[in-house]
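Illustration 12: Adenine deaminase.
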Amino acid sequence: MPLPKAELHLHIEGTLEPELAFRLAERNGVELSYADTEALRHAYRFEDLQSFLNLYYELMAVLRTEQDFEELADAYLARAAAQGVRHAEIFFDPQAHLARGVEMGTVIEGLWRALGRSVETHGVSTKLIMCFLRDESAESALATLDAAKPYLDRITGVGLDSAEVGHPPVKFREAYDAAAALGLRRVAHAGEEGPPEYVVQALDLLGVERIDHGLRSVEDPALVERLVRDRVPLTLCPLSNVRLRTIDTLADHPLPAMLEAGLMCTVNSDDPAYFGGYADDNFTAVQQTLGLTEDRMRELARNSFLASFLEDDEPRRAR
Ligand code: ADE
Ligand code: ZN
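Figure caption equivalent — predicted structure in token form:
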């Protein structure tokens, strides 16, 4: 039985499995530049974050209708439930859809069709986090927040993702201030490929409550001390780090040292359809490859609930 856990770093578009991509492509009359699912899977060899993002954005072309987003989310929730996930805080990238002429309402209402019944159908409670694409402009982020205003009852927080280097958190100060004024929680990707300074900026300038990835924080001892002292959760994604070549092999992952240092680490899947594993696959991989004890594994699971945006009066386990 997999440990009960919360998943806090999961891009719903990154759960698009090749089989579903081809089914939706056929249904929507979208031409894919791969002959079949096997050819597509062959393309899952990435050099870095950007080479992954190119494919990630390309495949999104198959997502067009509410039903598409519903089926995508429903398939993820079924897989997550089987891996012990009891609560999922799910990222989505509206700018990538708006740019293709798919409306905000189509994305959110479609996802909500699956999320709204997920406790009943999958035993998984959910929250939605809307991400700004950091390689788009600050004005575009503000316009996206504006477009989301009719759906604020569906959205718990905002995040920041896409190509990191050259797009520091400071660029999105205004958008994050505006999100906070709307009562939204704040997280941001930082220190995945970007320097520790981006983690500091996300904390100081964007007011984030969690850092997504935060891997490169380990290069700055003063930052590590601060993250430990303030119990700032890091949503690590070990299999993602290997696939995007942030680290050479899983055996090199600093997770054991990070836990030893007292950092509040969580383990998540990021884009599981692309990186070879869902939530518990990541748990199992780090346990086996890094030799983490049962106590450490339970700490990771406990951290995932503590670091979640579940309120005290919400059930930790859906059933
Ligand atoms: N969007 C989807 N996955 C991402 C990742 N690992 N880093 C940044 N942006 C992303
Ligand atoms: Zn991510």
